Amino acid sequence: MFDVLTPQVWTLIGNATLETLYMVFASGFFAALFGIPLGVVLFITKRGQIKENKSLNAILSAIVNIGRSVPFVILLVAIIPFTMLILGTFIGTTAAIVPLTISAIPFVARLVEGALMEIPSGLTEAARAMGASNFQIITKFLLPEALPSIINAITITLVALVNYSAMAGTVGGGGLGYVGIQYGYQTYVPEILIATIVILVIMVQVIQTIGDQLVRYFNHK
């Protein structure tokens, strides 16, 4: 049944797997780079928090909600001019990182905000009693305490990005999504389509397993 999966096809699938990993982890890195600070700001500007600012919180919340509500396929097309401005092209694996990152930032921000909201308010009060500044409260108390939940948030984001990267591949982003549609579906070779699905499932399982292990490790520290 899988005789069509020649060495050349496996090479194609292997390269596509590397492209998918590149898209997922590069966009995941940038999403965490911008999303975690955004989530912190969303939290500390809430009512009763260390830098309460209702206006700023309302504006940022609205932006994050809009970002989360736009379907990825629509976002992929809508920000083509922005992608062109940054990279000079909207086709290819690197170009796909831009919409992937933009779609993931508000997702990460809300998850990080939720992780910080789970911390008992007494921790902040204790930090204040010890004379900690706002910056120290964030970096030495809140973020370390929320670290397992933040790792879990990043894991969830990476899993979601695997799905999004497959969608990006169908419109010229490369990766397993492109191979599955272009060589599996459109040329009626279901073996290639099945192979790409299996690899994507394995990828998700590995990411989730590593994330769970890291959460358990930091929970016991």
List the helices and strands and how they pair.
Blueprint: H1 7-44, H2 54-69, H3 72-78, H4 80-87, H5 93-117, H6 121-129, H7 134-173, H8 175-185, H9 190-219
Helix pairs in contact: 1-2, 1-5, 1-7, 1-8, 2-5, 5-7, 6-7, 7-8, 7-9, 8-9
Q: How is this structure best described in words?
A:
By secondary structure, the protein is mainly alpha-helical. It contains 9 helices and no strands. It has helices spanning 7-44, 54-69, 72-78, 80-87, 93-117, 121-129, 134-173, 175-185, 190-219. The radius of gyration is 20 Å and the shape is elongated. It has a domain at 23-173: MetI-like (MetI-like fold, Orthogonal Bundle), CATH 1.10.3720. The model has no long low-confidence stretch (mean pLDDT 90). Helix 1 (7-44) packs parallel to helix 5, helix 5 packs antiparallel against helix 7 and helix 7 (134-173) runs antiparallel to helix 9. The chain is 83% helix and 0% strand.
